[in-house]
Recover the amino acids of this structure.
């Protein structure tokens, strides 16, 4: 478990990177809305995950937060240098290199700058693919996205669930469930639905 999760209460998770803590809505609240209960059962068969098991859902949401943090860090580590080098290359070209007298010098600069930017772009794309394209992470995102949808069905059905719960935004990156991929680390669970917790 991430060190950040050690500071959380027993039923809390972080809804977004750097965001406030959120208290888990019990599975019994969601199951109390028949349409949401049906959606959870259907999703359970489709995504091989019990969306009404409080401990499993809490573990899922905590892992989803770690996944979001990892994606941000990977983008930052490679994206910021790429942006700075690209901007610096363009500014230097506009302010200095275009005024060089020989075309050979200008072409040499363009070749070197283009090579450096291309190398950094390669590392950025490779890092992005390793995080966004990882099938285990895709399954995690697919389950978290479906849980969010189930919670919204329950809220529309009258359940006492905060707006935007579980406070994740859109899922712009790979969230396709891949049934052929096994979870390397099983989700925490009591082995049965934990609807009666306080």
């Amino acid at each position: 478990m991430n060190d950040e999760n050690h500071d959380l209460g027993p039923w809390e998770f972080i809804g977004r990177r750097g965001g406030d803590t959120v208290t888990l809505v019990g599975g019994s609240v969601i199951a109390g809305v028949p349409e949401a209960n049906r959606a959870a059962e259907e999703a359970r068969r489709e995504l091989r995950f019990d969306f009404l098991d409080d401990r499993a859902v809490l573990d899922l949401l905590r892992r989803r937060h770690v996944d979001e943090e990892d994606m941000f860090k990977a983008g930052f580590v490679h994206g910021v240098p790429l942006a700075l080098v690209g901007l610096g290359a363009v500014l230097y070209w506009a302010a200095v290199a275009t005024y060089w007298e020989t075309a050979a010098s200008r072409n040499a600069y363009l070749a070197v700058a283009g090579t450096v930017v291309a190398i950094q772009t390669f590392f950025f794309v490779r890092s992005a693919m390793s995080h966004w394209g990882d099938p285990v992470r895709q399954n995690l995102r697919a389950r978290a996205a479906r849980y969010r949808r189930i919670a919204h069905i329950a809220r529309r059905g009258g359940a006492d669930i905060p707006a935007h719960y579980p406070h994740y935004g859109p899922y712009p990156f790979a969230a396709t469930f891949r049934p052929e991929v096994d979870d390397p680390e099983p989700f925490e669970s009591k082995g049965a639905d934990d609807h009666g917790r306080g």
